[in-house]
Amino acid sequence: MKLIVKENREKELTVTVEYPEQNNQVLRIINKMKSEGKFLIGNESGRSYKVLIPEIYYIESIDKRTFVYTKDAVFRTDKRLYQLEKELKEYSFVKVSRNCLLNAGELTHLEALTNSRLEANLTNGEKIIISRTYIPEIKKVVFRGDLI
């Protein structure tokens, strides 16, 4: 990757990302730029924390509770999954099942499973099952980059 930095006092800050083909590295860079300073409030052990959006691997709803998974921690949030889906769509998050949103920038590869399902392998080694209903959405993101 080549980085070019130029000072131009007459223009506002502009970031241009040029790439030969879209891949997860490109998605992560764009996601980080778009979400710079953006965060969710997550709770862990009775304390509230700012969870930066680029640090989120996936979000899961279990028993009417919503959990945010990062590299090192799991946080509980008061927001519902449908609210987070709307808020995070522009940051490369995609719904992969009724109860899970996935950060497409953290996806390393997909594997086919039985019953027309897919398994998403993430950069942290975790594996998420993609329901067949949501396969077209994840394919759009992976193969065409529609969330950028």
TrEMBL record:
InterPro entries linked: LytR-like, LytTR_DNA-bd_dom
Gene3D superfamilies named among the record's database cross-references: LytTr DNA-binding domain
UniProt-listed PROSITE patterns: HTH_LYTTR (PS50930)
PANTHER family: STAGE 0 SPORULATION PROTEIN A HOMOLOG (PTHR37299:SF1), TRANSCRIPTIONAL REGULATOR-RELATED (PTHR37299)
HTH LytTR-type domain sequence ranges: 40-144
UniProt name for this protein: LytTR family transcriptional regulator
Organism: Kineothrix alysoides
Single annotated GO MF: phosphorelay response regulator activity
